[in-house]
């Protein structure tokens, strides 16, 4: 299993500013995942972050808007840049443990972002 | 196309009633994994169960039970004798052995005391 610490847990930000969300895992993992959950919606994958290479972004998400860092195997950051009210969402960090029958995705507590 | 469909957006039941949450998935892979997660109002995602494609045995864990049927591509979740603490959004998810989890749109369950 993996324990993920994500911070901040919530924030209220002014439009046009940027917020960096941190995700710390208690074990080394190859890939870390960032999801967005808009109000009342499901989870949408933003990008996959590999240590030592650029993140891979899903359709509709771009690096300029959501730059990601992955400096080592236990840590990643997601920045939400030039925020607008449409960016108000919960942002979740996740890691996956691919152990065959024990496969599971673990999630941080989420960052609840409100842009005003 | 949506890989995981949860047709029920919202369900309300009275405490102690049984409730079944539906999940239909779509995949061409022979090896895949299905999951249920619970998201209480606090926002964190809580893992409930995992099923792999080779194991169609139904499972019961306390008040929770899961019915996995490959023939209908369904993985339904039943809560018996529901309690107020069961109120949450429940997500069904699929992983095809790659790296991405596909989540359904969630079912919001409200248990009325």
Walk me through this protein's architecture:
The complex is a heterodimer of chains A (116) and B (113). In chain A, a hairpin with a 6-residue loop joins strand 9 and strand 10 (104-107). Chain A has no helices and 11 strands. Chain A is mainly beta and 116 residues long. Helix content of chain A is 0%, strand content 53%. Chain A has strands at residues 4-7, 10-13, 19-25, 31-37, 43-50, 56-57, 68-72, 75-80, 89-97, 104-107, 111-115. With 113 residues, chain B is mostly beta strands. In chain B, strands 2, 5, 6, 10, 11 and 12 form a 6-stranded mixed sheet that branches. In chain B, strands 3-9-8-7 form a 4-stranded antiparallel sheet, with no helix packed on it. Chain B has a two-stranded antiparallel ribbon with strand order 1-4. The mean pLDDT of chain B is 91. Classes of the chains: A mainly beta (116), B mainly beta (113). The interface between A and B is medium-sized, with 23 and 18 residues.
Task: Give me the secondary-structure topology.
The complex is a heterodimer of chains A (about 120) and B (about 110).
Chain A: E1 4-7, E2 10-13, E3 19-25, E4 31-37, E5 43-50, E6 56-57, E7 68-72, E8 75-80, E9 89-97, E10 104-107, E11 111-115
Parallel strand pairs in A: 2-11
Antiparallel strand pairs in A: 1-3, 3-8, 4-5, 4-9, 5-6, 7-8, 9-10, 9-11
Chain B: E1 4-5, E2 10-14, E3 19-21, E4 24-25, E5 33-39, E6 46-52, E7 59-61, E8 64-69, E9 74-79, E10 88-95, E11 101-103, E12 107-112
Parallel strand pairs in B: 2-12
Antiparallel strand pairs in B: 1-4, 3-9, 5-6, 5-10, 7-8, 8-9, 10-11, 10-12
């Amino acid at each position: 299993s993996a324990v993920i610490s994500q911070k901040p847990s919530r924030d209220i930000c002014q439009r046009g500013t940027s917020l960096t969300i941190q995700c710390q895992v208690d074990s080394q993992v190859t890939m870390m995942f960032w999801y967005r959950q808009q109000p009342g919606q499901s989870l949408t994958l933003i990008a996959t972050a590999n240590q030592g290479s650029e993140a891979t972004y899903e359709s509709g998400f771009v690096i300029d808007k959501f730059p990601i860092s992955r400096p080592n195997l236990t840590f990643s950051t997601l920045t939400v840049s030039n925020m607008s009210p449409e960016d108000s969402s919960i942002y979740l960090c996740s890691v996956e443990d691919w152990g065959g029958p024990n496969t599971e995705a673990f999630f941080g507590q989420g960052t609840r972002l409100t842009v005003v | 196309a949506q890989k995981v469909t949860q047709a029920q957006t919202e369900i309300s039941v009275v405490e102690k009633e049984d409730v079944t949450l539906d999940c239909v998935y779509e995949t061409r892979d022979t090896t895949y994994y299905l999951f249920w997660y619970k998201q209480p109002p606090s926002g964190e995602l809580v893992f409930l169960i995992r099923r792999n494609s080779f194991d169609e045995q139904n499972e019961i864990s306390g008040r929770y039970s899961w019915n996995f049927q490959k023939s209908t591509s369904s993985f339904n979740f039943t809560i018996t004798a529901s309690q107020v603490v069961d109120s949450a959004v429940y997500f069904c998810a699929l992983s095809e052995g790659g790296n991405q989890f596909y989540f359904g749109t969630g079912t919001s369950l409200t248990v009325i005391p």
